[in-house]
Amino acid sequence: MSDTQTLDEAAVSAYLRDHLPGFEGPMTVTKFQGGQSNPTFRLDTPGHAYVLRRKPPGVLLKSAHAVDREFRVQRALEGSDVPVSKMHLLCEDDSVIGSMFYIMDHVEGRNFNEPAMPGVSPADRTAIITEMNRVLAALHEVDIDAVGLADYGPEGNYFERQVGRWSKQYRASETDKIPAMDALMEALVAERPADDGQRTLVHGDYRIDNMIFDATGTGCRAVLDWELSTIGHPFADLAAVIMQWQMPAGSEGRGMGGLDRAALGLPTDQEFVATYCARRGLKGIDHFGYYLGFNFFRMAAIIQGVLKRALDGNASNPERAMKVGQYVPVFAQHGLDALKRG
C-alpha cells in the first residue's frame, strides 16, 4: 500500500487471526489524526480495542520510523514505574501491508494537546504535571541492564551523537537555506559540555501530548510515541518539556508562553526542574541552556523532515505537515537564544 491514510483491513484482519491469540473480528479501523511520523490506527473488535502503528510506506531516511524499536522498549518497560501500553506483536514482514507494524492495546483515558490543559481545574493541572514529573524521573531511573536495554543505544557522548545524527537528517530533508539553523548546528558542536557520565533510557519526545491520563483522575496510564527513544542523557528529556512550555500558549504553539501559571495551578520552569532534581537526588543542572538549545534544534530538524515528506507526498497528515514545516526557522532562532542565555 502507498497510502498513509488507509489500511488494508482485510490483510490486517487475516494476519491477526493467525498471529494474535484471542483476536476475533469483525474489525473496525479508525486512523488517529495526531502525530506526523508513523501512521497509527485504532482497531475495534467486539471484545477488544487495539492500536496498529506502522512505518510509512515509500523511501525513508535511514534509521527513521523504527517501529521495531518502539515495540522493544515498551515491551521492556512492562511492569515498571513507567506506564506503557501492553505490546502484543511485531510484524516485520513488509508483504502483509507494505511496511513493518506492531499491535498494542488501546489505552482508554484522556490526552491533552496543550500543557496548559484548557478546561481542567487548577488542582488537577498541578496533580497532572506532578505525575508527568514523577514518570520522567522514573524513566531515567530504569535499570537498563535489568530490563534488557543496555544495548539499546551506543556508548559515548549522547549530544555529540545526536547533533551529528540530526544534522545529517536535516541536510537530507533540507528544502531551503535557513541561516539560523546553520548557525545553531555550528554552535551546538562548539559549545557542547563535557560528558558527565549519565547514561539512561531517554524517551526523545517527552511531552504531555504523548501521554494518556486517567479519564477522571490524574494518574498516567501510558507514555506513547517511543520512536526517538534510545540510551542517552536524561537532561535532553527534561529540557524537551521546558522547550515546549516556552512556546506560545494555544493550540498552535502548544506551550505556556504568556500565561499566569500560578493562577492556573502550573509550575514555573524552575519549579519543574527543581522537583525533578529532588526526585533523582541531583543538586542542580549546569549548562541547561545548551540542553534547551539542543531540543529546539532537534525539533527543527524533525519538522523539516515532516515538511519534506509532505512535499514528497508521504506525510501522515499532509495539511498539518505543511503548516508545522513553516516553524523550522522559528525553532532554530529559539535554539540560538537558549544557547545565548546559557
TrEMBL record:
The organism's place on the tree of life at top rank: Bacteria
CDD domains hit by this protein: ACAD10_11_N-like (cd05154)
One Pfam family cited in the UniProt record for this chain: APH
InterPro entries according to UniProt: ACAD10-like (IPR052898), ACAD10_11_N (IPR041726), Aminoglycoside_PTrfase (IPR002575), Kinase-like_dom_sf (IPR011009)
Aminoglycoside phosphotransferase domain ranges (all copies): 28-254
PANTHER family reported for this sequence: AMINOGLYCOSIDE PHOSPHOTRANSFERASE DOMAIN-CONTAINING PROTEIN, HYDROLASE, PUTATIVE (AFU_ORTHOLOGUE AFUA_1G12880)-RELATED
Name this protein carries in UniProt: Phosphotransferase family protein
UniProt organism field: Sulfitobacter albidus
